Amino acid sequence: MNQTQDLYKVDLMRTLWENTYRGTVFNYEGRYTATVRLILGIPMDRDSVPENAPVVHPYVTVLVEDTVLTPSEVLDFEAVLSKVVIQRTASQYFQPDRCIFFYPSPADAVPDKEEPSRPR
After folding, report:
1. How many CB atoms lie within 10 A of CB 7?
2. In the prediction, which pLDDT does 94 show?
3. How many angstroms separate the CA atoms of 69 and 32, rounded?
4. Fewest Cβ atoms nearer than 10 Å: which of 29, 37, 82, 108?
5. Tens-place pLDDT, residues 45-87
6. Count of CB atoms within 10 A of residue 80's CB?
7. Are the C-beta atoms of residues 20 and 37 closer than 8 Å to each other?
8. What is the spatial distance between Cα 60 and Cα 96, in angstroms, rounded to a whole number?
9. How far, in Å, are 3, 24, 70, 94 from residue 87 at the CA level?
10. pLDDT tens digits, residue range 89-107?
């Protein structure tokens, strides 16, 4: 088994938003690991910005919407999944150099005892 990219498999599908994808992440055993949303950060063409504008690089925002990971597994997950996501989203026109991960707030995962449960 490859030490990095074979640890996770990502099934991607397009969404109704431009440059946004939804994915399901499975571990090397085929077990569910996470649901993610990928948003491609595509810089504007240099012709469309002022000459003195800073140079920016493409990236991928990874919104982790749901996961079974424990906090101790997050860093390894991000290190491996970044490589998978960059490889899967790269094209002739889009070459991301990094992924930026976001997770739900822990407060969203713990229901308020005073408030009745609300559907998500």
Report:
1. 18
2. 94
3. 10
4. 29
5. 989 999 999 999 999 999 999 999 998 999 999 999 999 999 9
6. 19
7. yes
8. 7
9. 15, 16, 25, 11
10. 999 999 999 999 999 877 6
pLDDT on residue 1: 37
Amino acid identity at 10: V
Could you write out the three-class secondary structure of the chain?
CCCCHHHEEEEEEECCCCCEEEEEEEECCCCEEEEEEEEEECCCCHHHCCCCCCCCCCEEEEEEEEECCCHHHHHHHHHHHHHHHHHHHCCCCCCCCCEEEECCCHHHHCCCCCCCCCCC
Residue whose structure tokens are 């559907």: 119
Q: Which two structure tokens, joined as six digits, stand for 62?
A: 């990874």
Q: Quote the tokens at residue 119.
A: 């559907």
